[in-house]
Amino acid sequence: MLRRMPGRARRRSAQRRQRRRRGLVAGALALVAEVGVLWMRAGRLAGEVVVRCRSGHVYTTIWIPGISVKSLRLGWWRVQRCPVGEHWSLVTPVRESELSDGDRRLAREHRDMRIP
Questions:
Q1: What is the pLDDT of residues 71-114, one digit of tens each?
Q2: Cα 47 to chain center, whole Å?
Q3: Distinct helix (H) and strand (E) counts, the chain
Q4: CB under 8 A, 24+ apart: contacts of 35-40
Q5: Is the distance from CB of 63 to CB of 46 less than 8 angstroms?
Q6: For 68-104, b where at least 16 C-beta lie within 10 A, e where not — what string?
Q7: Which of helix, strand or coil describes residue 83?
Q8: Rounded distance between C-alpha atoms, residue 110 and residue 21, angstroms
Q9: Residues 12-45 pLDDT 10s
Q10: Is 52 left (phi over 0), alpha (psi -120 to 50) or beta?
Q11: What span, in angstroms and rounded, lies between the C-alpha atoms of 30 and 65?
Q12: What is the pTM for the complete model shown?
């Protein structure tokens, strides 16, 4: 015998589904925004990206939009350990084409730790 949910329970269930759907849409939009900003700033969609810390050091890191294993995400910025200055700093992606030859060389020489 099938029992019908009371009207109030149906409304709550529908509200939960609607909230979940809104959350998924917001998450998808945030991911698309991060990919867009990464493309504008670094000219790449993901992978090995040159970043600059607040102290001006440049190095290469793995940047995967929507995922962070070794950093704290703050939008398109991340708080991450800088291997050049050996400190924690806010990092942001940079275009390799806008770097000097010396900075490009330094970025290739200095890589952050691989994924643990």
A1: 787 766 789 889 898 899 998 888 888 888 888 888 888 887 76
A2: 11
A3: 2, 5
A4: 35/65, 37/75, 37/76, 38/63, 38/65, 38/76, 38/93
A5: yes
A6: eeebeeeebbbebbbbbeeeebbbbbbebeebeeebe
A7: coil
A8: 42
A9: 788 888 888 888 888 788 777 777 776 666 667 7
A10: beta
A11: 10
A12: 0.63
User: How far is the C-alpha of 6 from the C-alpha of 13, rounded, in Å?
Assistant: 11
Contact in structure between 65 and 46 (CB atoms under 8 Å): yes
Sheet holding 87-93, edge to edge: 58-63, 47-53, 87-93, 77-82, 72-74
| CA 66/CA 86 separation, integer angstroms | 25
Question: Is residue 110 within 8 Å of residue 81, measured between CB atoms?
Answer: no
For residue 61, give every residue at least 6 positions away whose Cβ sits within 8 Å of its Cβ, in sequence order, or none.
Answer: 48, 49, 51, 80, 91, 111, 112
Tell me if 76 sits within 8 A of 23, measured CB to CB. no
